[in-house]
Fold Large ribosomal subunit protein uL30m.
Amino acid sequence: MSAFNKFKASVPIAWSPNLYITLVRGIPGTRRLHRRTLEALRLRKCNRTVMRWNTPTVRGMLQQVKKLVAVETEEMFKARKANEAEHRALRPPIVISHLPASATDSKQP
């Protein structure tokens, strides 16, 4: 079981009016019915996320392609995006001096 699936299993799923659907597996080599379902969900490329209303029609489509997609509620999606933004936050640059130690000491008064 992958780490993402373990994470999904541990998070309690609350009802949400919107579902965030991410295509996590590639389309080539899948059945035509699955490709048409992904096309109807507007998922064309891997790691792309779309938001759809939580309706029985959409849930039926997701049931059909559940091995190809990851489904998140609004809260889960916002938490993941906040975590990614925090991870990508700007950090102070690391300054490395390649001059020999004696050259840096002689420049200081």
Remarks:
- The chain has five helices and three strands.
- The longest strand covers residues 18-23.
- The two ends are 61 Å apart (CA to CA).
- The helical segments are 3-10, 32-40, 56-64, 74-87, 101-107.
